[in-house]
Specification:
CATH topology of one domain: Nucleotidyltransferase, domain 5
Number of strands: 7
Number of helices: 3
CATH class of one domain: Alpha Beta
Strand content: 15-25%
Largest sheet: 5 strands, mixed
Distance between the termini: 56 Å
Helix content: 25-40%
Order of helices and strands: HEEEEHEHEE
Structural class: alpha/beta
Shape: elongated
Length: 139
């Protein structure tokens, strides 16, 4: 019977007082895997962006600089709100480290077209000419 000390010489059986942590470790590892799978999906929801949908898109872009424009028109650089000068400075630093650097530009569908063009223009002003526009595929 589980939990009994079968090696005891006495007629009275004593229960094992140690805690078996194997099931606890199993549960923790399952929760870790669930968190690792769902965390990337939550990032888009946290930024509250509705990406435009297209029928084509290769998805083969390597991300080095993530730029987003939210519904209110705020510029986000890798998830942190910044201004135009902060974006320029970060783009310059990224280009200094890697001349082949790219930027991924994401914008909410409700953002004015001019604001997105302004962000792309800021990236081009500092010499970052390789960029992609993030989209969602239509079903």
């Amino acid at each position: 019977m589980a939990g009994l000390d079968l090696n005891s010489d006495s007629e009275e059986s004593s229960f094992v007082s140690a805690i078996n942590i194997t099931p606890f470790v199993d549960v923790v590892l399952v929760l870790l895997v669930i968190f690792m799978i769902t965390a990337p999906m939550l990032v888009k929801d946290v930024l509250e962006l509705k990406l435009p949908k297209t029928a084509t898109g290769d998805g083969q872009v390597v991300q080095t600089l993530g730029v987003a424009v939210n519904r209110e028109g705020n510029i986000l650089l890798n998830g942190q709100i910044t201004d135009e000068e902060g974006l320029k400075k970060a783009a310059q630093e990224t280009l200094a480290k890697n001349p082949e650097a790219q930027a991924i530009v994401a914008a909410d569908v409700e953002v004015a077209y001019g604001k997105v063009v302004k962000v792309i223009d800021l990236l081009k002003q500092v010499g970052l000419n390789r960029f992609a526009v993030q989209i969602e595929r239509e079903k």
